[in-house]
Design goal:
About 60% of the residues lie in helices and about 5% in strands. The chain contains twelve helices and four strands; from the N terminus they run αααααααβαββααβαα. It has helices at about 15-30, 30-35, 45-50, 55-60, 65-70, 75-80, 85-95, 105-110, 125-130, 135-150, 155-170, 180-200; strands at about 100, 115, 120, 155. β2 and β3 form a beta hairpin. The longest helix is centred in the last third of the chain and has 21 residues, at about 180-200. It is globular, with a radius of gyration of 17 Å. The protein starts with 16 loop residues before the first helix and ends with a helix.
């Protein structure tokens, strides 16, 4: 068992969740924080290469992606024909997260109200553009832009699961129930976070 694979929780949002979290922490947390978690720091080249990758295909050629892919449990790597591209997208996007946000989900972090503007941190138009992404490349690009807008602060595992779910839906042949679709779940979290923030500001 590798350093990245240790410490899996009793229940996971998706196969490989603990691996993803430790992989991200190894690239982002300080040496003191990593020592407390008993995680070895990742080489700085991992994150540097990932952040420069402009497409999911480019991510496939990075050392950081290779380290994540090889550490993943077998069910995560073999579950779908498109798994490698999905995980490459996940790796490239997560490399832009600097801080674990206190929002309950990725979409909620986008809808959180900015105290200075009294508006969501990500505009409704930008959010709708993400929801309308039709190709992996467009989806990847939109996610990068939104992470810049929230200053690299969001829920790591929530975004990771959302990316994997998006790929599953994008390639699925059988339609899902509306309330199970990632676009619907993200929309609910986004608008609920915005509404909660506006209500709080009025009190």
């Amino acid at each position: 068992m590798t350093d990245i694979e240790q410490g899996a929780p009793a229940t996971s949002a998706f196969a490989g969740e603990a691996t993803v979290m430790r992989w991200w922490q190894a690239m982002v947390l300080s040496e003191q924080e990593l020592a407390a978690l008993k995680i070895r720091p990742a080489p700085t080249v991992f994150r540097a290469e990932l952040k420069r990758a402009e497409t999911p295909e480019a991510v496939l050629m990075t050392q950081g992606f290779r380290a994540l892919w090889l550490a993943l449990p077998e069910p995560a790597r073999q579950r779908r024909a498109w798994s490698m591209l999905a995980w490459a997208t996940l790796a490239g996007v997560l490399s832009h997260i600097r801080v674990q946000d206190d929002s309950r989900s990725f979409a909620a972090s986008l809808g959180k109200i900015d105290a200075n503007t009294d508006k969501p941190r990500v505009s409704e138009l930008r959010f709708q553009q993400l929801q309308g992404a039709r190709t992996p490349e467009e989806f990847y690009r939109r996610l990068h832009r939104l992470l810049k807008q929230v200053k690299g602060q969001t829920r790591v595992v929530s975004l990771a699961k959302g990316i994997l779910d998006w790929f599953d839906e994008h390639h699925a042949h059988a339609p899902l129930r509306a309330d199970k679709k990632i676009a619907v779940r993200w929309a609910m979290d986004y608008y609920q976070a915005a509404e909660k923030g506006l209500t709080k500001n009025k009190d």
